[in-house]
């Protein structure tokens, strides 16, 4: 005879370890972008409310980690993909036209579509008065002048100003350049080179 608290037909109660394991799978799935934030939260609530192991399996079945062979294959593909992306960035960076830093003592270089600018860029994504490049305290500073399509340095948007150096990639709208030291300045810094 069984008591009212025991039922031979009911499965064993889920352990905290089983719930933690399921929650870990959900967290990893969300981190990898396999679950939206809302889906993650909904499934997390369901894991905490689950009464049987098969309920947990249903909530994590599409997220279970791959076998070791699959993990190695996908890891290799991820590494190769990131390598090809890095190569593409390097390849594109080397092909960018040079933008010479102005000579020291010169006025700030204004950049934009308007003919009054020292550097006129006739492209639809460049604002009339887009940016300004000036020497301040011995460093070159690039300032965005409230452009519509933005100014970036090495892929990061310039909100107000950014210090730039020889070799940096700068973009005004969709026009990109590689900064280069003016030849007379390079000769002055490295005589006899």
Automatic annotation (TrEMBL):
Signal peptide coordinates: none
Protein name: DUF1707 and FHA domain-containing protein
Source species taxonomy: Bacteria, Bacillati, Actinomycetota, Actinomycetes, Kitasatosporales
UniProt keyword list: Phosphoprotein
Matches recorded under Pfam families: DUF1707 (PF08044), FHA (PF00498)
UniProt-listed InterPro entries: Cell_Proc_Reg/RNA_Proc, DUF1707_SHOCT-like, FHA_dom, SMAD_FHA_dom_sf
Annotated ranges, domain FHA: 109-158
Entries under CDD domains matching the protein: FHA
